[in-house]
Q: What sequence folds into this?
């Protein structure tokens, strides 16, 4: 499988269930080096779960996930930790450590994994903060940051060890247009400037389509559409159409499954 | 009827599973001990929030408990004309029982619940998950220093409680009620044995420290990551700690102070 | 990073406070300071009955505590209690004919050994045995002795008054 040098992450026949609920059912995806690949789909389809599967936090019931030629779930715990040092992850809430200020948060991976002297750490942290535009905010505590700023700080932290890839979990959700614009710019620019491979999980069609090189559309645990943004926009598949255009009803039903309306209103035995 | 049995079975299985998780968790926490002892700063930060910030509570409580012991003890002993033995009564009650036990209960309420809430909240805000993805073991990095801090702080706090309590008993007994100062101390010294009483008291507080801190960090780590889940976990941590402390107190007292 | 200096100071103070408390308890509250592991010497004494004498009970002379009971044993041949006492090193001039009595402190207190000096020039050395001993008083025996002597006394008085009465006749 890991023969194609172009592909950094590949997922094959991935299946995952939580209890009785099937979240993924045989999903195949390739993520090319140096590109921004997006995973989109309606809420609740387990897009975040996919990132956790790739990162090794969850085990699939079937199938494999390979990162840089290595089967993630065949690794020992220490090998997995080594791999994770080369992966950056941006959580939806940022997941900054609340008892450390911004500077210390960004410095955290350096302090934990390297023996670099303070002066070096300072330079690296300031560089990464500058890249996300938060160098002046380095003494603030996470509680003093707006949502967008918290995500930017978390982004700086995610790239501080110069990883080979970054995973973004719903980076645009709940952001005002300006913050969204900032994040969009950052994701694309960092990807190109640092030669990263980015995996963006999102359901914001416009923003994601603007920066993605390739998109996978997931619904009901399967890939229902994939392609470059332009292709997808012109696709004739009903799933893709409904999602890309934001139609309230279609393959994803408006009504949650329920009993007959008339009977429900008039009561039982009516 | 059938429902009750089903529920009972399920509760039992859940409890057994939980105990299993708790024990595996403890092993995981302990495995990080050496690393934390080498990173002293993490440990001292926790000893501050867990130990130092409990000092006021423990000292004030100890003082009042000691003073009450002085008052009550005097009442009881004067019926036997044995007021001179007030010192023994106050010191023995404190060092053997009240010091370790009351300190443990107060500690569970103050520091234990704070630990549970803090860790539960870190879980709910994905900080623990984030650390995992940054290739840092959250248990060893976050939980182990807190656990060690709790275990080390307990005997210190219990000794503080006993010391302040004895002084409180002294103020009340000798200062207010007129017990002879010399008799107060010398009777105490001849009846309290260092090994049997003081050391056993320290052992008790160490055991309580392990139990209370273990329950507190485990409940936090095991909590359902919602606000309701964290609040329930905090309550559970205090309640289970209380049961555990009192239960272990009985066992330890029977072992240590039973007739030989 | 600067806050850690104050923090460390507080934690250090906390630990110091805890150790001080422990020390206080050890020294002022318990009998640790009386605990001499080294120095001193051992004496033996046999008793027919040691009552409720316990190990670590005080051994005193003229009311001054000079040592502690270190071991209590049993002589299977002579069916007597063998008490071993540890005497502080500075009290090394006890005459060989010193006697040992088991007394009770106060009315209901614990029992201890009281030594009374004899008059000989030779001194007791490490391992010597105190020959003159008096067992502890068993309350029941004292009471029955008292009652018996009371009964005897009143009998004698009856006889005497009988005689007087008969004399007076």
A:
């Amino acid at each position: 499988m890991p023969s194609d040098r172009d592909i950094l992450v590949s997922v094959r026949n991935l299946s995952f269930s939580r209890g009785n609920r099937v979240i993924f059912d045989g999903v195949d995806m390739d993520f090319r080096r140096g590109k921004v690949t997006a995973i989109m789909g309606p809420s609740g389809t387990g897009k975040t779960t996919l990132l956790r599967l790739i990162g090794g936090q969850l085990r699939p019931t079937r199938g494999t996930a390979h990162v840089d030629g290595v089967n993630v779930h065949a690794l020992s715990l220490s090998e997995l930790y080594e791999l994770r040092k080369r992966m950056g992850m941006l959580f939806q809430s940022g997941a900054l450590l609340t008892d450390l200020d911004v500077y210390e948060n960004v410095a955290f991976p350096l302090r934990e994994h390297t023996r670099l002297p303070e002066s070096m750490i300072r330079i690296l942290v300031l560089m990464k903060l500058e890249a996300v535009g938060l160098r002046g905010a380095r003494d603030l505590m996470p509680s003093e940051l707006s949502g967008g700023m918290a995500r930017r700080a978390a982004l700086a932290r995610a790239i501080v060890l110069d990883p080979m890839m970054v995973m973004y979990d719903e980076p645009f959700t709940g952001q005002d247009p300006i913050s969204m614009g900032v994040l969009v710019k950052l994701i694309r620019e960092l990807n190109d400037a640092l030669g990263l491979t980015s995996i963006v999980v999102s359901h914001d069609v416009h923003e994601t389509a603007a920066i993605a090189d390739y998109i996978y559309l997931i619904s009901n645990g399967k890939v229902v559409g994939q392609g470059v943004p332009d292709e997808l926009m012109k696709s004739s598949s009903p799933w893709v159409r409904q999602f890309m255009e934001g139609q309230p009803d279609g393959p994803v039903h408006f009504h949650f499954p329920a009993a007959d309306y008339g009977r429900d209103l008039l009561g039982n035995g009516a | 009827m059938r429902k009750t049995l089903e529920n009972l079975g399920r509760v039992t299985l859940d409890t057994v599973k939980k105990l299993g998780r708790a024990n595996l968790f403890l092993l995981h926490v302990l495995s990080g001990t050496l690393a934390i002892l080498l990173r002293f700063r993490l440990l001292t930060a926790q000893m501050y929030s867990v130990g130092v910030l409990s000092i006021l509570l423990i000292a004030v409580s100890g003082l009042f408990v000691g003073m009450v012991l002085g008052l009550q003890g005097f009442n009881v002993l004067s019926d036997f004309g044995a007021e001179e033995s007030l010192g023994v009564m106050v010191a023995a009650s404190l060092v053997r029982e009240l010091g370790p036990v009351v300190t443990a209960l107060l500690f569970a309420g103050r520091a234990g619940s704070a630990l549970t809430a803090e860790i539960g909240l870190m879980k709910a805000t994905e900080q623990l998950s984030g650390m995992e993805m940054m290739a840092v073991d959250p248990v060893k990095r976050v939980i182990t220093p807190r656990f060690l801090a709790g275990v080390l702080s307990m005997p210190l706090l219990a000794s503080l409680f006993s010391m302040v309590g004895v002084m409180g008993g002294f103020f009340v007994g000798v200062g207010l009620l007129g017990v002879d100062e010399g008799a107060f101390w010398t009777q105490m010294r001849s009846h309290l044995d260092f090994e049997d009483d003081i050391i056993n008291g320290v052992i008790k507080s160490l055991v309580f420290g392990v139990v209370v801190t273990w329950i507190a960090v485990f409940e936090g780590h095991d909590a359902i990551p919602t606000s309701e889940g964290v609040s329930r976990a905090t309550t559970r941590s205090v309640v289970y700690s209380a049961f555990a402390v009192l239960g272990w107190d009985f066992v330890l007292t029977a072992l240590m102070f039973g007739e030989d | 990073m600067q806050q850690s200096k104050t923090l460390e100071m507080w934690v250090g103070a906390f630990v110091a406070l805890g150790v001080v408390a422990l020390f206080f308890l050890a020294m002022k509250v318990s009998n640790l300071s009386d605990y001499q592991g080294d120095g001193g010497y051992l004496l033996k004494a046999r008793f027919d009955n040691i009552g409720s004498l316990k190990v670590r009970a005080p051994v005193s002379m003229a009311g001054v505590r000079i040592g502690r009971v270190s071991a209590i044993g049993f002589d299977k041949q002579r069916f007597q209690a063998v008490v071993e006492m540890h005497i502080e090193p500075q009290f090394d001039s006890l005459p060989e004919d010193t006697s040992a009595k088991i007394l009770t402190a106060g009315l209901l207190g614990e029992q201890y050994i009281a030594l009374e000096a004899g008059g000989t020039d030779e001194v007791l050395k490490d391992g010597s045995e105190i020959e003159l001993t008096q067992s502890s008083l068993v309350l029941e025996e004292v009471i029955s002795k008292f009652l018996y002597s009371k009964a005897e006394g009143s009998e004698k008085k009856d006889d005497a008054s009988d005689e007087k009465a008969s004399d007076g006749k």
Notes: Chain B has ten helices and no strands. The radius of gyration of chain B is 21 Å. Residues 86-124 of chain B form the longest helix (39 residues).
